[in-house]
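=== RUN LOG ===
request id: a7f3
mode: sequence -> structure
chains: 1
length: 319
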Amino acid sequence: MPGIPLLRPRTAAAAVLALAVLLLTLAACSPATGASPPPGSPLPVVSSTAILADFARNVGGDAVTVSSIIPPGADIHTFRLTPGDSARISRARLILTNGAGLDDFLDAAIASARNHGSVSLAVANGLALPVDRQPVASSQHADEDHGDGPHLWLDPAYAMLYVERIRDALAAVDPPRAAVYERNAASYLRHLRDLDEDIARALSAVPAQRRVLITFHDAFAAFTDRYAFERQALAGVQGGDITPQDVVRLLASVRRRGIPAVFAEPQFDEKILRQAAAEAGVAVGVIRSDTLDAQTPTYLAMMRANAASIAALLSERAP
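=== RESULT ===
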């Protein structure tokens, strides 16, 4: 699996500390009665995003009902809560957010709406890849200035950590069905390992000089770091205004390096990116960072579609 880790490897002591913090958080938030849902009754789970909801459904199966606060296809950076969202939060036993700066704007509303017996978990906070999931190759084009971007699930190895944390949270809230969550998670983790290998295989068709992912929204650090791509974007991690200098810089890079395509995301109005692509005479592909829709209804489908789009437009066979 080519690429470089998004977060620097941490010591074993740091990993133990992170696990201890997670367990203490769950213990502190667990209901005083320790009551589980009635036999046969699904556990109500609310997540901030559709990606987290998909993970929770795969781990929980029929033992959970999951809803996403931010609708599939919506822009998380401009979303606003409704009274109906607060009502769903109040009924949930487990509340999943990403954390890492992505959906922290929900924290106050969740704290106000959640019921006393619920658990709230920011799944990405404090994550670092274990040694056995570190990418084994790096690229001379790898972007060193990746920071700690919040879209960690775009690296399937981090998605595995998400799933493991969600499994443990469900088991802590609903101990009688812990074995169910363990079995479901083990099955889904196998799919994620296969996904990682499939993506690496698909992207192997892209030669080193074309391994540059140019997007509107700077969300793909985890993806590009894992699979040995450089990345460039017009807007930052949170979106934002685009300056003429940003467009000039992107056009110069595309022309100088002979990059045949740039990539849009369906939830953004990306007229500027498309205009720049037309001026440079390059194609515009579509990839997704957090959008599940009719074309890519699951995380697995989204990631495979992303890899196929990138490979098709940046490979040696592309114009």
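=== NOTES ===
The chain has two domains: 12-174, 199-314.
The beta strands are 43-47, 64-68, 94-97, 119-122, 212-217, 230-235, 261-264, 283-286.
=== END ===
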